Amino acid sequence: MSAIEERRVAGLTVRIDRALCVGFEDCMEDGQALFRLDHEGICVFGDDPGSVSRASVIRACEACPVDALEVFDEAGEKVV
User: Fold this and answer.
1) DSSP bridge pairs for 45
2) CB count, 10 Å around CB of 64?
3) Distance between CA atoms of 32 and 52, rounded to whole angstroms?
4) Which CATH number does 4-72 carry?
5) What single-letter DSSP state applies at residue 55?
6) Residue range 16-67, pLDDT digits in tens
7) How many angstroms separate the Cα of 62 from the Cα of each of 31, 35, 39, 40, 78?
8) What does the alpha-carbon distance between residue 26 and residue 63 come to, in Å, rounded to a whole number?
9) Domain extents for the chain?
10) pTM for the predicted model, two decimal places
């Protein structure tokens, strides 16, 4: 598995840097469908990220204490 995972969710590009993630799970409070922890305790995309609202995506990614999550808008500008 790559250290960087990226997916389009709610019109945003969400990027997980698995090398930075330490599995605090803060992102899952607002993004339970968006993220989950894998067998190593590291963040990966959940099974149904399409059901998450744009606001929830931003809140979930802002919650990451180690900045392992980034969000970019439709123009490629960094939001989080």
Assistant:
1) 35
2) 23
3) 9
4) 3.30.70.20
5) H
6) 999 999 999 999 987 788 999 999 999 999 988 778 899 999 999 999 999 9
7) 11, 13, 24, 22, 12
8) 6
9) 4-72
10) 0.91
